Amino acid sequence: MTELQRIQRLILEATSVLGRETVPILESLGRVLAVDTVAAEDIPGVDISAVDGFAVFHGSLQGASTQSPVPLRIIGESPAGRPFGTGVGRGEAVRIMTGGVIPDGADAVVKREDAEERGSLVVFAASHGPGGNIRFKGEALKRGETVLFAGEVIGAVEVCKLASLRRSHVLVHQKPVVAIISTGDELTDFHEPSLPGKIMCSTLYGLAAQVLETGAVPLLLGVAQDDPAEQRKLLSEGLRADVVITSGGIANGKYDLMRQTFRAVGVDIKFTNIALKPNKPAVFGAINGTLIFGFPGNPSAGMISFEQFVRPALLKMMGRNYFDEVKQSFFSSIDSFRPDLKGGGPLRASLVPDRGPATGKGKPS
Amino acid sequence: MTELQRIQRLILEATSVLGRETVPILESLGRVLAVDTVAAEDIPGVDISAVDGFAVFHGSLQGASTQSPVPLRIIGESPAGRPFGTGVGRGEAVRIMTGGVIPDGADAVVKREDAEERGSLVVFAASHGPGGNIRFKGEALKRGETVLFAGEVIGAVEVCKLASLRRSHVLVHQKPVVAIISTGDELTDFHEPSLPGKIMCSTLYGLAAQVLETGAVPLLLGVAQDDPAEQRKLLSEGLRADVVITSGGIANGKYDLMRQTFRAVGVDIKFTNIALKPNKPAVFGAINGTLIFGFPGNPSAGMISFEQFVRPALLKMMGRNYFDEVKQSFFSSIDSFRPDLKGGGPLRASLVPDRGPATGKGKPS
C-alpha cells in the first residue's frame, strides 16, 4: 500500500454512508438504490396477445387444412387496453391486437397473416395447438421477484424498469452537502468589486464544480479574510454540512491561520502535512461526523487534493462503489488536469508524501 | 459504411447545431463553449511575491555575506491583498507574503528562511540579484491571450479558469428540448389509475432518462390513445420542441396510426421501416426544423433506437463532437442495455436493417 492509499483508507474509515431519501425516478439518475425493488404484481398482469391476429378456442380449428378450411364468426375485438367484454365460444373468433387481453374461452391466437377475413367470418386453413402467441400472466415477471438490488446505480434502463413497476419514486442514498470556504485577504468573489492586488477566489468555483461532477451538493460559503474570528464564523457555519473544504491558509506563513482555526473549533485533526506537489500541506480532520479538509489555496493543488481525498469520501457517502470508481477517475483526472491558465502539460502530482519536517509532523497521526 | 451508419449520417445532415445562451459557470458543466474566452487583463495584474519573505531593492544587499551581513530596516508589510502603501528605499525592507504586491522601489524578494529578524531589523548574509521570487505582471497570462476555445466541453478545470478571469457567466450552446409521446390504448401514466389490461407507459420514462443523461431537456407530453385526433393534438404540441420522439403506433397493425399522423401533420418522412431487432420499424422525418422520430412501443427497442438515432443528433445540437462520443457511448450502451425486466443477457440489437418489404419502403428516401 502506498502512503497515498494509506491516507485514503484513513479518510474512508472516517466516512459513513449517508441515509436515504425518496426522489422522483427522473431525478434518481446516477443515484444509488437504497433498497431492493420487488415486483408487487405479475407482469403481464393478465394473459395478453403477442401478435395481431384472432383469439380462438383451439378446438374450433381441429382438422382445419387447405383442403377443408374452417370459418369462424368474428364476434368482436380486443385491442390493447380495451378487453373484449364477453367470452369466446366454439365457432367464434375475436380480433386481437398485440397487447390485447385474451378473452375468456380463448386459448390460442392465430396471426393475422395465417387467417383470411371474409366479411363477418375469418377462415383458417390450418389447425393450431393451445397457447400459441400468448404472453401469459407473470411471464415477464412474477409478483415477489426482485427486479433491482440495493446498491445499484440508477441509469436510464433502471428508470424504465421502475416505471414498468409503477414506481413513480424511489428510495436512494442522500447526496452529501459540501461546504466550501476560501480564505485569504487577497481574494474577492463575484459579488465584490475587483481591486488592485486582489484576485478571484477561483478555487472556490473549481471545487464547487468538482462537487457537482461527483453528484453532491456544493454550499459556497465564500471568502474568509485572514482573520481568526471570520474564519471561525464561516467554519462553524460549514459544520452543518456533511463535508467542509477550506482552500488556503494552511501553510506556515504568518497569515496561514486555518489550522489554528480548525483546532479552535474543536476539529479532531487526523493528519496534516501531506506533501502534495506542486504545493503545500493538506489537513484532514472530523468533528461530530462532519469531515474537514484543509487544502492549499492554489487551484491546481486544491483540485488535485479533491480528486485524491474528497471524491472517494463523497462516493462512499452516496453508497457508490468508491474503490473501483476512484481508481478510474483519479488516474484519468490526473492526466487531464490542466488548471494552470496557459494549458501546458498535465500537473505533476506527487503521489509520494514527504517524510515530514524534523518534528515528525509529516506522519499521519 | 454500414446501413446503420448511412442512416445516422442522414439524420445528422438534417440536424443543426443550436444557438447560444448565457449560463452561470456552475451550471455550464458538460456544456460546450460557444465563443473563445480571451483574457481581459494580465494575470497576475501586478508584480507579486512568490514566497513569504522580504521585498527589497537588490542593491541594498550588495556585498552581503556571512562575514559581513547587511541589516535593513523593516518599514512595513505587504500581505496578500493589502499592498504596502509607500515605496521601499535603499536600506529598507518590507515583510511580504505569498501573493503580496511588490512595493515600489523593490525588485527582489528574499525568502524568510534566508533572512534573520532582529527587532525592527532584518539581517541578510548573502547578496541577491534583481527579480528573484517575483511573479511578474502577466506572467501567468497576458491580456488578449485565448484561454478557452469555442467547442471545448466545460469541466471543473474550465470552471476554475473562467472564475480566475472573473467570468461569472459563460456563453454555451443551447440544450435541445425533446418532446416525448407514448401512444397506445393500453398505456397509463402515473397520474392515472391502473386498470386491468393497462400497463405503464414505461418507455416514456426510459426515453426521458436517456434525454437527461445526454444533457438535453425532456418534455413528457404523456400518452396519446390510439386515436388520430388525439395523436395529432399531442404531436402538434410537440412541434415547438427541437425533437419529438413517439413511442408505439408505428407498425402495420390496425391501430398503428402514428405514421398516418406524421403525414397528416405534414412531417417530411426521410426514412421508414428500419429493421431494429428485437422489434418493429422506425420512422424519421422533419418539419420546420423539428426532428421527428417514431419508434416502437417496446421499451428495449425504443431505448436502443434512441442510442442509435437520437443521441448523435442531440450531441450535434449541443455542439459536441458527436462522432467520437457516439461511437463510444453506442457500443458501451449496447453491452450494458438490459431493459427486459428479468435482467437476462444484453439485447440483441440488429445493426443490419432489413432489405425492406417488396414495396421497397425499407430504403431511406
List the helices and strands and how they pair.
2 copies of one chain form a homodimer.
Chain A: H1 3-13, E1 20-24, E2 37-38, E3 48-49, E4 53-56, E5 70-78, E6 92-96, E7 108-111, E8 115-118, E9 121-124, E10 134-135, E11 146-148, H2 156-164, E12 169-173, E13 177-183, E14 187-188, E15 199-200, H3 202-214, E16 217-224, H4 228-238, E17 243-247, H5 258-265, E18 268-272, E19 283-287, E20 290-295, H6 299-317, H7 322-336
Parallel strand pairs in A: 5-6, 13-16, 13-17, 14-15, 17-20
Antiparallel strand pairs in A: 1-12, 2-11, 3-10, 4-6, 4-7, 5-9, 8-9, 18-19, 19-20
Helix pairs in contact in A: 1-6, 3-6, 4-5, 6-7
Order of strands across the main sheet of chain A: 7-4-6-5-9-8
User: What is the number of E strands of chain A?
Assistant: 20
For the termini of chain A, the CA-CA separation is 17 Å
Quaternary form:
homodimer
Structure annotation, total helices of chain A? 7
Supply the helix-strand structural class of chain A: alpha/beta
Largest interface: A-B, 73 and 74 residues
Summarize the structure.
2 copies of one chain form a homodimer. Helices cover 24% and strands 24% of the residues of chain A. Chain A is α/β, with parallel strands linked by helices and 365 residues long.
